[in-house]
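Hey, quick one: can you model this chain's 3D structure?
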Amino acid sequence: MDVKTRILDAALGLLAQGGAQELTQPRICKAAGVRQSHLTYYFPTRADLLQAVARHSIEALASQLAARELDAGSLAEALAAGAADKRRIRVMLGLVAAADRDPAIKRRLRAFIRELRGRMASVFASAGLDLDEESVAFLHTMTVGAAVLQLARDDAAARAEAKAVLKKAAACIGRERP
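Sure thing. Here's the predicted structure for all 178 residues.
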């Protein structure tokens, strides 16, 4: 595994353990087994690191989804499983919190969301759902909301609710045809 991937995986692990406050340079370097110069070479700013961790996490999910044969029902199951990943949710919440304080991060986050929705549209298309931008935004918003509420409650009932909500959202979108 290359140094950059080790850093990203270490950051994801720290996020899973304790959230964005765990993402300090010394902790990441120790967890990745790298010198601080390696970290700052690949990620000069915290914003660079957060965005890269988010992209790394989302690309892993997109790869998992692309490897599966999905229909509208199994897509909802896959979205629910992705929404249950605490690391992914914490990364996104960390980005949102950072973007609230830093206009440069906010611009990056906007671009990242556009890119993410493009990836989502491709996954939905492979599942037989040819969705317009508004429908992709709807499913994205439902997924994020379900993920955040699931993280806040962190129990079996929250996971079941998220799965049911995402199935219903996918079913509604799947029926929607102009």
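One thing worth noting: The CA atoms of residues 42 and 48 lie 8 Å apart.
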